[in-house]
């Protein structure tokens, strides 16, 4: 059985999908981009501020499922320019304990929704 996870503390979906789905004890999140949920505006000041907004959005989605970053077992990071990887990785790393960090892949793509620079999705287990 699947349970829809939704919170107003993260951006509302902009298409036919949900912020996350809880199936059993596994949470599958949709990708988050740097939309400020309070204003609906993109946060594109810098790659670091953009990544921080993405991670804060993801933090709220996890919280809506009564989870934290410690529950995350897998992340997928999509970036528009591999040259920004180091800065993205620095911000991303602030949210995880290095010893218990999840598995991950980082992929450079041609374009992302709304032409942002970074999108992150996660899988977490209770």
From TrEMBL:
InterPro entries named among the record's database cross-references: RidA (IPR006056), YjgF/YER057c/UK114 (IPR006175)
Keywords: Hydrolase
Molecular functions per Gene Ontology: deaminase activity
CC per GO annotation: cytosol
Homology family: Belongs to the RutC family.
NCBIfam families, alphabetized: Rid family detoxifying hydrolase
UniProt protein name: Rid family detoxifying hydrolase
Source organism of this protein record: Polaribacter marinus
């Amino acid at each position: 059985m699947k349970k829809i996870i939704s919170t107003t503390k993260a951006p509302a979906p902009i298409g036919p999908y949900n912020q996350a789905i809880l199936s059993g004890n596994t949470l599958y999140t949709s990708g988050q981009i740097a939309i400020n949920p309070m204003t609906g505006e993109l946060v594109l000041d810098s790659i670091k501020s953009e990544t921080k907004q993405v991670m804060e959005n993801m933090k709220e989605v996890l919280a809506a499922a009564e989870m934290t970053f410690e529950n995350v077992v897998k992340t997928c990071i999509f970036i528009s320019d591999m040259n920004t990887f180091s800065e993205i990785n620095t911000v991303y790393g602030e949210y995880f304990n290095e010893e218990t960090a999840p598995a991950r892949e980082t992929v450079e793509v041609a374009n992302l929704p709304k032409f942002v620079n970074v999108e992150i999705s996660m899988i977490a287990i209770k």
